[in-house]
Write a structure and sequence with these properties.
This protein has a 5-stranded mixed beta sheet with strand order 3-2-1-4-5, sandwiched between helices. Strands 8-7-6-9 form a 4-stranded mixed beta sheet, with helices on one face. Helix 3 (105-113) packs across helix 4 (177-183). It is built from 4 helices and 9 strands. Helix content is 21%, strand content 24%.
């Protein structure tokens, strides 16, 4: 059963999926459908700023008691940003004893635009993009291999990577705090498991791990 994030409620919001230099990451406080305070951050390097940013927002706005829920973007996006934001969000929620709700980046952007049929393309590594459709799994691939045939429209921070889209392009590099909250309305509470899509680049040493000390 989903938990409503509208009405009389207080929600702490995280988005650490952003990559690149744009202001695509955020932390925010939302109360009764209004953004009380928020901090926008560049995706690149945002991971080290999430903890002090949410601490400052909570202190400056006198949120001294637990919120009703914590909502966070699960991905796809920056490995480091997702690890940092989701672990912090989960830790705070555990301390507050409140539920967590995770949404995909595409779902949050579609809610921000009020465009449920939009396909979200976002920046990935090595010149690739993540593709988050309204239905079906999130995938990753080269920009030149994208086939927008049948797409109602496309949006996201990777739309500039391709100039010959055959479908309408909607401008939206990142979701708003309210868009993230709205996307969570139809999602059941659960663990904040990151949606990486790509496997991690870090690999165990070829010779194996060192043995445990005696």
């Amino acid at each position: 059963m989903s938990v409503s994030v509208t009405g009389s409620s207080r929600t702490v919001v995280f988005n650490g999926a952003g990559a690149g230099a744009g202001l695509t990451s955020l932390v925010a406080l939302v109360e009764d459908g209004r953004v009380i305070a928020e901090k926008l951050m560049a995706g690149r390097g945002a991971s080290e700023h999430f903890a002090p940013a949410i601490r400052d927002l909570l202190e400056q706005n006198d949120w001294t008691t637990a919120p009703d829920r914590v909502v966070a973007v699960l991905g796809p996006g920056s490995f480091t940003g997702l690890r940092s934001s989701l672990s912090l969000a989960a830790g705070l929620a555990a301390g507050w004893n409140c539920p967590t709700i995770g949404v995909t980046l595409g779902a949050a952007i579609r809610a921000t635009l009020s465009s449920p049929d939009a396909v979200c393309v976002s920046i990935a590594r090595r010149g690739r993009v993540f593709v988050d459709p309204p239905h079906g799994p999130v995938t990753a691939g080269q920009t030149v291999d994208l086939d927008p045939e049948g797409w109602a429209c496309v949006t996201g921070d990777a739309v500039s990577e391709k100039s010959d889209w055959s479908c309408p392009v909607l401008s939206c590099e990142a979701p708003t705090a309210l868009g993230i909250v709205q996307a969570a309305e139809s999602v059941s509470p659960g663990p904040l498991m990151p949606l990486y899509v790509d496997p991690p680049e870090a690999k165990p040493p070829a010779a194996g791990l060192r043995p445990l000390p005696l």
